[in-house]
Amino acid sequence: MRFKKIFAVVMAAAVTLSTLNGFHGFSAPKTAKAASFVNLNQSQITSAMGAGWNLGNQLEASLNGTPNETSWGNPTINANLIKAVKNAGFRSIRIPVSYLGKIGSNSSYTIDSSWLNRVQQVVDMCIANDLYVIINMHGDGYHSVDGGWLFCDGSNQTAIRAKYKACWKQIATRFQSYDQHLIFESMNEEFDGTYGTPNRTYYENINQLNQIFVDTVRTSGGNNAKRWLMLPGWNTNVNYTVGDYGFRVPTDNNCTAGGKRIMISVHYYDPWGFCGEESTTATQWGSKANNSSKVDSWGDESYLKSQFNSLYNKFCSQGYPVVIGEYGAIDKSAFDSNNTACRAEFASKVCTYAKKYGCIPIWWDNGVTGTYGFGLFNRNTGAVTQPKIINAITAVYPSSGNNSDSTGSIDTGKTYMLKNVNSGLYMDVCGAKAVNGTNVIQYSASKAKANNTWKFVPDGKGYYYIYSCLGDGRTFLLDVSCNSSANGTNIGIYKNTNCSAQLYKLVKNSDGSYSIYTKSSGCKSVVEIANANRSNNGNVQQWVYNGHNCQKWQLIAQ
């Protein structure tokens, strides 16, 4: 399955062009260095991570043994792409990372600090969008990659283990203060390069590496003692991880979370003829298939269900969530007009059974949007290229973070107080004046009053009008001054003007709060308290989203 990642001939030709793409729209994001770590249990982390997406063929891309995010033809990662993934409805992003030639040859195996800085930048882009993030050690164990070294069949396991431990010590230390949004995955598709029944000696070497990973991360300081950690079995194969082939869950004696905090990592590309084989033989799958000659002879829905059920019985039922770290099916629509519908159904069924059996599904996206590609987005523009597949995923995970209140938790028949997460104060109409242009501030409140309560009225197109309860409760709306898109634009109340200044989208955050996006900014900015003020009279304004708590609001129904 490694060929889903490496397109050497195509990618090498694209290197020069791709390096011309810069950090479009990048601004310094907030980091996940939170003051407090929310210790999520198994059901909470599974629910919070929802459906995920892979930033594949980027930070694990390499040329002649040196990692570079544009080496396989994709543009430089930018914040707009990450925002597009969030807006499409995904809750989590898996970021494959290779180190290879970025690891020094000295005895301490020092990782190039500029490379770690870049990994951290990309993690922060995701965290700024309230996404859960998985980073791993991806291509270092590939026999097919120049500079690979993390080999379970290597002759000098002592040296491999020392290098592996030194690398994870540096990675874990770099991210030790990050909150629960960050998850570490020990390695990727680790095996001896030979498909078939695992060699038990080599499998035990994988177990030893996983144990080193857990022990090293747990003792590296900060929040790492309670962070969720993710571990694969042989080649992330379901059968070879569940069955009696040699996999064992490592001990986790240094975990301080008060419960299990280990996830199991597997991948799902069955049947490979439909999912990954670059041929026109198998282009259809599932109930949407209309030509039996185009369907593989195995790997149907019943097989999928049995595989995920086995994961539940072996791991999920014992307190270990399973992450389907990669799944997907390549685009063969150029050869079969029914292929897209079948791919969408495949995605739907993977998500359906993942949700049923307590797993977390993460679609593999390699950035290739044409024939034989896994891509769901144009990585230059952030535009969705496979809406049917994304819709199939988000139909199963409707609360996975769309730029709308898809959870249905806002009761439009009720009124709400809006409590700022950062300050604990409430959105309030200054002086309780029901007059055009009256400023909106934050203020303490012991009870609900007309000046600090609001009503949400949908416009039927995914947006809400937010009415102040002052006066008759149907006249004055939360309003972005002059319909501006600029940072710092003041927000007050105004009579209905039927324009974008009075329309908002709500995104539910993992802590249950909401970010309130302004249509006037093209949903790039949100309603916030200026300068993260925590005092009475702190001003309400519009600012580009950065994930700070001053941009999050708890909706308290009255």
Automatic annotation (TrEMBL):
Limits of the Glycoside hydrolase family domain: 64-367
InterPro entries in the cross-refs: GH (IPR017853), Glyco_hydro_5 (IPR001547), Glycosyl_hydrolase_5 (IPR050386), Ricin_B-like_lectins (IPR035992), Ricin_B_lectin (IPR000772)
UniProt entry keywords in alphabetical sequence: Carbohydrate metabolism, Cellulose degradation, Glycosidase, Hydrolase, Polysaccharide degradation
Pfam families reported in the protein's UniProt record: Cellulase, RicinB_lectin_2
Keyword Hydrolase on entry: yes
Membrane spanning stretches: none
Occurrences of domain Ricin B lectin (ranges): 413-494
Family named by the database record: Belongs to the glycosyl hydrolase 5 (cellulase A) family.
Name used for this protein in its record: Cellulase family glycosylhydrolase
